[in-house]
């Protein structure tokens, strides 16, 4: 009978093989484009059920926001409105820095001030990103709501629910969202500029390292310097330390076998980013976007992913 170590090694071998098998069976080589919004049936059948991303063109043509939204338009309509802004020294909010998981400093600023910085008319310490992910569009910028739909009807019908959150994103080119995943079916709409997504299917989990970090927050001092302040009595947070744009393959050699999908989302396009897909996001300077988060169904797929996650962790793969 094989020793426990030999059996564990066999589990590791299977886990390392698993992402390739799934890729061959079910992951496209690049993110496919659709020429218009799918019907609810098509969306559910061809994309949500197989947990497969796609980019949908011509789905926002009827939104006044498309064509209208620009930095001068935002200044005219909501320039005086205060919004919550994430501020970081290096553009990375919610990211591993050293041995900490560091969240951004939060500032309440009139959107016009953010626009001044984006347009180079004013300076502000650090990198600014309007990205509060708790329905900041209806919550903080309700004047913009007449410019778009409150949800994507074909998606809501397919998913049998309304979005949990409608988020507004506006930031500098230096603002980057580190690699992570969410339990949301994400419909991400670019209204102006471009977003660059790097994606991994959930099946790549054995190649993607997680470690536990003490949570902390940047504090922005009056003199413009940043300090990292630990959260009080908080539990450690599992997060991905790897930067997929410059992966440290000495430290995380398994990642060499991962095959990210990359895509650029342009104004008027909608990315369907399926639940549990890992994503890393960059943007053009002043890109304006809105996304809809629909809570995922916690079904068999979620159960399988949890099993893969537990196996990868306990087998010491990441
Ligand atoms: O646009 C971004 O910077 C990040 C988007 C994201 O992570 C999300 O929608 O879950």
TrEMBL record:
PROSITE patterns: JMJC (PS51184). GO terms for cellular component: cytoplasm; nucleus. Its EC number is 1.14.11.63. Keywords: Cytoplasm, Disulfide bond, Hydrolase, Iron, Metal-binding, Nucleus, Oxidoreductase. Its main location: cytoplasm. Residues 130-309 form the JmjC domain. One of its GO terms (molecular function) is endopeptidase activity. It holds the Pfam family Cupin_8. Its cofactor is Fe(2+). InterPro entries: Cupin_8 (IPR041667), JmjC_dom (IPR003347), RmlC-like_jellyroll (IPR014710). It is an enzyme of class 1 (oxidoreductase). Bifunctional enzyme that acts both as an endopeptidase and 2-oxoglutarate-dependent monooxygenase. Endopeptidase that cleaves histones N-terminal tails at the carboxyl side of methylated arginine or lysine residues, to generate 'tailless nucleosomes', which may trigger transcription elongation. Preferentially recognizes and cleaves monomethylated and dimethylated arginine residues of histones H2, H3 and H4. After initial cleavage, continues to digest histones tails via its aminopeptidase activity. Additionally, may play a role in protein biosynthesis by modifying the translation machinery. Homodimer; disulfide-linked. Interacts with DRG1 and DRG2. This is Bifunctional peptidase and (3S)-lysyl hydroxylase JMJD7. It comes from Ornithorhynchus anatinus (Duckbill platypus).
């Amino acid at each position: 009978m094989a020793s426990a170590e030999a059996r564990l090694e066999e589990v590791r071998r299977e886990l390392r093989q698993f992402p390739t098998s799934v890729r061959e069976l079910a992951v496209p080589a690049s993110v496919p484009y659709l020429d218009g919004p799918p019907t609810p049936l098509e969306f559910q059948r061809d994309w949500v059920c197989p947990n497969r991303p796609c980019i949908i063109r011509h789905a926002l043509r009827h939104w006044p926001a498309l064509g209208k939204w620009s930095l001068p338009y935002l200044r005219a309509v909501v320039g005086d409105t205060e919004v919550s802004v994430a501020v970081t020294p290096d553009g990375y909010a919610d990211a591993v820095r050293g041995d900490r998981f560091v969240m951004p400093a939060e500032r309440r600023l009139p959107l016009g001030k953010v626009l001044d910085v984006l347009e180079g008319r004013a300076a502000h310490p650090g990198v600014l990103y309007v990205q509060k992910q708790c329905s900041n569009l209806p919550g903080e910028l309700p004047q913009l709501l007449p410019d778009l739909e409150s949800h994507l009807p074909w998606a809501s019908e397919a998913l049998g629910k309304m979005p949990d959150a409608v988020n507004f994103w506006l930031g500098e080119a230096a603002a980057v969202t580190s690699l992570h995943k969410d339990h949301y079916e994400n419909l991400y709409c670019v209204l102006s500029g471009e977003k660059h997504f790097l994606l991994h299917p959930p099946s790549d989990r054995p190649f993607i390292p997680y470690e536990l970090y003490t949570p902390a927050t940047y504090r922005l001092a009056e003199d413009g310097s940043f300090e990292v302040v630990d959260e009080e009595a908080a539990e450690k947070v599992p997060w991905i330390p790897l930067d997929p744009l410059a992966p440290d393959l000495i430290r995380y050699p398994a990642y060499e076998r991962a095959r990210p999908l990359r895509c650029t989302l342009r104004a008027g396009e909608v990315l369907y980013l399926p639940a549990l897909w890992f994503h890393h996001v960059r943007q053009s300077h002043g890109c304006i976007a809105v996304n809809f988060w629909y809570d995922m169904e916690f079904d068999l797929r979620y159960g399988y992913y949890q099993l893969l996650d537990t196996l990868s962790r306990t087998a010491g793969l990441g």
